[in-house]
């Protein structure tokens, strides 16, 4: 769910499922800019990069992105519940006890009413996005300039920006991390306050 707020706030969010190649830069930029974001991890990511997860969870809100990133509309209820439980357990372990509840993001944005009901019964609220930077696509079809132009054109009050923590597997670019500093500056210049998803809902 987007936040639905009419106030001039916007939430930065990052999905972690493949690699943590962009995380060092992302975290440094957030610190330097005194900005916040919400991070969604898969359980496998948490198992591969526990130090990264623990570092992020100590400062920023975190959410569950499933264990293995499947299409939730194409798996059984039992498999979906296992994805939620196993992902949560891995994240809690890696983070040193921080629960991802109630934040959940469906892999691929693949969702229907039945899948929403499944995650709701696990006390999760699913969050989509209003802008997908497509930074994961790499330099063959995207660039920092394109990302900044997209966000500038589509930013709306109560919006949620989707970015990724990892690199493109082919060119190993980290476009979202590279674009982040200028993105924050541009959004603030347009009058936006950067908030977590929880803060966006409260407002």
Give a written overview of the molecule:
It contains eight helices and eight strands; from the N terminus they run E-H-E-H-H-E-H-E-H-E-E-H-E-H-E-H. Strands 1, 2, 3, 6, 7 and 8 form a six-stranded parallel beta sheet that branches. Strands 4-5 form a two-stranded parallel sheet. It has one domain: TIM Barrel (Alpha-Beta Barrel), CATH 3.20.20. The mean pLDDT is 95. 43% of the residues are buried. The chain is α/β, with parallel strands linked by helices. Helix 6 (144-154) links the parallel strand 6 and strand 7 (159-164). It has helices at 23-32, 43-48, 50-57, 77-95, 113-121, 144-154, 175-189, 197-202, and strands spanning 9-16, 38-41, 62-64, 103-104, 125-126, 131-132, 159-164, 193-195. The longest helix has 19 residues, at 77-95. It is 41% helix and 15% strand.
Q: TL;DR of this structure?
A:
The chain has 203 residues and is α/β, with parallel strands linked by helices. The chain is built from 8 helices and 8 strands, in the order E-H-E-H-H-E-H-E-H-E-E-H-E-H-E-H. Helix 1 (23-32) packs parallel to helix 7, helix 3 crosses helix 4 and helix 6 (144-154) packs parallel to helix 7 (175-189).
């Amino acid at each position: 769910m987007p936040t639905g707020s009419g106030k001039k706030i916007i939430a930065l969010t990052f999905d972690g499922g493949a690699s943590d190649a962009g995380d060092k830069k992302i975290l440094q930029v957030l610190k330097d800019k005194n900005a916040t974001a919400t991070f969604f991890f898969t359980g496998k990511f948490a198992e591969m990069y526990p130090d990264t997860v623990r570092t992020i969870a100590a400062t920023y809100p975190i959410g569950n992105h499933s264990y293995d990133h499947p299409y939730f509309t194409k798996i059984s209820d039992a498999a979906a519940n296992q994805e939620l439980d196993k992902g949560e357990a891995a994240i809690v372990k890696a983070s040193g006890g921080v629960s991802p509840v109630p934040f959940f993001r469906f892999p691929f944005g693949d969702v229907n009413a039945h899948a929403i009901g499944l995650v709701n019964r696990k006390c999760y609220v699913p969050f989509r996005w209003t802008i997908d930077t497509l930074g994961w696509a790499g330099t063959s079809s995207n660039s920092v300039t394109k990302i900044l132009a997209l966000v500038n054109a589509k930013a709306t009050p109560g919006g949620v920006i989707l970015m990724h923590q990892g690199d493109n597997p082919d060119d190993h670019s980290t476009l979202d991390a590279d674009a982040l500093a200028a993105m924050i500056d541009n959004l603030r210049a347009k009058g936006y306050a950067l908030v977590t998803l929880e803060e966006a809902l409260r407002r």
